[in-house]
């Protein structure tokens, strides 16, 4: 199993933490800026993170996180547990989107 992302945290960090918490051995592949233009062509949807399992490659950070949490027994015991986890994950996505918007804002008064 390989987790492929850039050499920083951001969208792959939850997956890395899940793999560590679950004690799952994996290859943590870090793509540099100089490698990205070539690697991008190989990625589903032209984006990372991706999770490679055998010869299959899967994209989208939340889909990867959900898969790993289920596979590693970290997704709760009931459907209600899973629902509670999903709501926190989706809230985190909303926070992240707002933070990125604020970071990219050039107008200091709007930040």
UniProtKB/TrEMBL annotation:
One of its GO terms (molecular function) is glutathione transferase activity. InterPro entries: Glutathione_S-Trfase (IPR040079), Glutathione_S-Trfase_N (IPR004045), GST_superfamily (IPR050213), Thioredoxin-like_sf (IPR036249). One of its GO terms (biological process) is glutathione metabolic process. It comes from the Eukaryota. Residues 1-76 form the GST N-terminal domain. This is Glutathione S-transferase 6. It comes from Biomphalaria pfeifferi. The lineage of its organism: Eukaryota, Metazoa, Spiralia, Lophotrochozoa, Mollusca.
């Amino acid at each position: 199993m390989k987790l492929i992302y850039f050499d920083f945290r951001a969208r792959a960090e939850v997956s890395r933490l899940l793999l560590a918490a679950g004690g799952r051995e994996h290859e943590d592949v870090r793509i540099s800026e100089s490698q990205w233009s070539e690697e991008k062509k190989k990625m589903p949807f032209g984006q990372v993170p991706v999770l490679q399992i055998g010869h299959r490659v899967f994209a989208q950070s939340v889909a990867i996180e959900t898969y790993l949490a289920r596979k590693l027994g970290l997704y709760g015991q009931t459907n209600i547990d899973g629902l509670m986890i999903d709501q926190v994950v989706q809230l985190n996505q909303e926070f992240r989107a707002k933070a990125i918007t604020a970071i990219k804002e050039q107008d200091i008064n709007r930040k």
